[in-house]
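Hi V.,

You were right to ask for the full record rather than a summary. Here it is.
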Amino acid sequence: MRYLVLSDLHANLPALEAVLLHARQRGYDDVMFLGDAVGYYPHAEEVVQRLMSLEPAVRIMGNHDAALLAMIDEKPERVRDASVVTEVLERHLAQLSNDSVRFLQGLRPTQLGDGWEAAHGALVKPWEYMSSLGAAQANVPLMKTQLLFVGHTHFPKVFAAAKTAPRPGSNEAGHELWRTVTFRNGYGQYRVPPRAHVIANPGAVGQPRDHIPLAAYALFDVPTRSLDFHRVEFDVAAVQADVRAAGYPEVLAARLALGR
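Predicted structure:
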């Protein structure tokens, strides 16, 4: 069993299609979606429909997905704080078909698998960015399994914790050793160590933030407990042109080329 692990698509169709083409050439059996199909870029309906066609086995709700759905039930007279995020989500809500909205409504906050679990952000606080070692350490006690998949930060990264054995004849407990691994290049592999706790983030398909303007995704091989991290080129200029043609905020086009 091999999962294609996708997160933070953010309505960026060229990036999603580039990732899917790259992943098909390497092979996968099913899809694990870690949230945020919508937000930021102008291809919301196309991206949600493309995601639906993949029939992902794992369907996690992201903070942008949740914010868009909250707008459906919001009373018209309530005033929201103006921001780029809310402006884009309001436009996405007007663009999405009923089928796409129903798909988003079916997303889950967490999902448990065989030896792994999935969420969008942290377990302690759902929309917390698990970007630091301290945040990872705070979440390990809440893990139900050895391996937790998350998205949200847009950084392809692994946090791993393993306990050393106590010294012979000592009453002291073993020490906890932590390791952080980032994946900035075109390819990197990580194998989940026995008895370790691992938090793995595949990075963002639609909006990389590590100053490398390449889409990110991962392949998770269940039998070997190995993760392949990939970075993929996509047509940044085409997305920027679509942002401008649709009248979206210019900052969204500018940041994409900078990978931030």
